[in-house]
Design goal:
A hairpin with a 2-residue loop joins strand 7 and strand 8. The strands form two sheets. Strands 1, 2, 5, 7, 8, 10 and 13 form a seven-stranded antiparallel sheet that branches. By secondary structure, the protein is of the alpha+beta class. It contains three helices and 13 strands; from the N terminus they run αβαββββββββββββα. It folds into two domains: 53 residues; 175 residues, Sandwich (Jelly Rolls), CATH 2.60.120.1560.
Length: 229
Amino acid sequence: MMKADFLTIDANKMKANARWIAILCLFGASPLASAAFLVEVWDLGSSDVTSIAAAEAPMGGPSSASGYYDDVNFNDEFLHYDGEFSGSNSLFPLLLDDTFSLRATAEIIIEDAGTYTFGFNSDDGAVLRLNGVDIVTDDSVHAPRTRLSTFSLSAGSYGIELIYFENHGAGTIELFSALGTYAAFDPGAFRLIGDVAGGGIATTAVPIPPALLLMGSALIGVFFRRRQR
């Protein structure tokens, strides 16, 4: 059994760590996450969600669950379909009701300029955005299927955002890409985005705004000063 003494907090260490986190963030680092994709889910209970607009509606409020992941490759325990990447799926971050929406964000690193094909396999709908622009859209309810889009990219970093929704029944979502032009999924070319060991595009976590970390550091300092009085 795990000991509970890990809950003991050293106030001085907490303040020092907060300052270091703020400093790291000033240089664009995101020290709070080792995996790149921030995945957030919103449990919608029994309400129908049949469009991207409906999926995004609750995203102005707090999520039901969130976590950092190396890639986007999820299904649920009821799904007997393994997508394009057989045997590698993870369960969704939360054991959800029949309807929910998901948002995954990160930054991708394009090492070499060229033509790239991005896509996802989903049940139900999803939209993929690059630097805020919709590049792959599937705004409907359906069985698992793949959608692709091809375009040219310069070398550099790009913000990537995936919005996904599940409307009753089983669900799955996979996010992948390939160098080159493809009209259909090719298992020899496509790799999960973020799966660098498997040949996928490299990702980094979206940096936490320095102002937020500095504010957090200040609040922690105020909290512990009050506690020590």
